[in-house]
Amino acid sequence: MPLNRPTICVLGCGTMGIAIIRGTLDSMSGADSVQCSPKSSHATVANESGSDPEEDLLRPAGFIACVSHQESSVKLKTILGDQVKVLYGEAGNVQGVSEADVILLCTKPQVAKAVLSAPGIQEALTDKLLVSICAGVTIEQLQSWTTPTTTVIRAMPNTPCKIREGMTVLSCGPTTDAQSMKFTSNIFSTLGRCRILDEKHLDAVTALAGSGPAFACVMLEALADGGVMMGLPRDVATELAAQVLQGAARMVLTTGAHPAAIKDSVTTPGGCTIAGLLTMEDGKIRSTLARTIQEAATVASTLGRDKK
Ligand SMILES: NC(=O)C1=CN([C@@H]2O[C@H](COP(=O)(O)OP(=O)(O)OC[C@H]3O[C@@H](n4cnc5c(N)ncnc54)[C@H](OP(=O)(O)O)[C@@H]3O)[C@@H](O)[C@H]2O)C=CC1
Ligand SMILES: O=C(O)[C@@H]1CCC=N1
């Protein structure tokens, strides 16, 4: 299927839909300008830079965002401005999918089947690419709710996509073509890091990377609490904790160092770090965090199932 400068419909534009649109528009706003097309009234991105023409063809031409309720559509317009065409309700979904080339399914997993099975959607999806970010919804399920003419890809991004520091994992189905995969990987690579893995890993990915920002923020908040306990002002403690986590994470990502080696390099014999580390180990922090991912992955695997 041709994917030159496609229009993307974000079907279910809440937290993640907004993060993906915002991050993508920001990624293009440097060299490119985003403007509202009077003809189609959805956002178009005009490239005036001398960038790679092949990459340019993979950039979205514009976004359409679909939500369920009219009130949400009003709020969304104030968040995304006139760069994005906003539609709501069942008729809005059919219109949005019909006008787009690529559909990003960002509803809650529990409503994915109903949204894709609604009258007019299957026809509107003919010969199009459907990328689902719904936790626990498998490629097999997505294929069974669409016709064979629709190409299906599963993605698991996370909220930091909004600031282009995201982590996304993609899985393709047996019939996914290379161009669809290249386009999808290009979109998510501009929003942070992007990897392709076999679908069997996606529940673990959902727990570690999808839910991960929540777990990381609980750790961040707890570290800051400790600083506050020892007299630091809250804003200072939060800044220190956030920068420490970012710095340590960047050391792992940029140097490739093992986390244990970085820990050891901080730990002076008989010093304060080993005193703190032993206290952490007494609290079983390692197994608590590892079990957190295990439990979240177990629940993720159930999210696409019909509720009895
Ligand atoms: N939140 C996260 O960190 C992550 C979430 N995910 C996955 O992303 C998906 C979305 O999550 P999230 O963004 O948090 O959810 P939100 O609740 O923030 O957004 C869901 C959106 O879907 C819309 N919606 C609901 N029903 C319909 C419908 N019938 N037709 C069209 N739109 C509809 C809602 O509109 P309205 O407001 O009008 O009801 C809302 O805009 C989930 O499947 C989740 O598993 C994946 C990775 C990370
Ligand atoms: O909590 C959830 O179910 C979703 C999936 C990953 C992050 N949030």
TrEMBL record:
UniProt xrefs under InterPro entries: 6-PGluconate_DH-like_C_sf, NAD(P)-bd_dom_sf, P5C_Rdtase_cat_N, P5CR-like_CS, P5CR_dimer, Pyrroline-COOH_reductase
Binding residues for NADPH: N93
Keyword Zinc on entry: no
Keyword annotations from UniProtKB, A to Z: Amino-acid biosynthesis, NADP, Oxidoreductase, Proline biosynthesis
EC top class, as a word: oxidoreductase
Pathway(s) served: Amino-acid biosynthesis; L-proline biosynthesis; L-proline from L-glutamate 5-semialdehyde: step 1/1
GO terms of biological process kind: L-proline biosynthetic process
Enzyme Commission number: 1.5.1.2
Gene Ontology molecular function, alphabetical: pyrroline-5-carboxylate reductase activity
Domain Pyrroline-5-carboxylate reductase dimerisation, first and last residues per copy: 199-301
Protein name: Pyrroline-5-carboxylate reductase
Name of the gene this protein is made from: PRO3
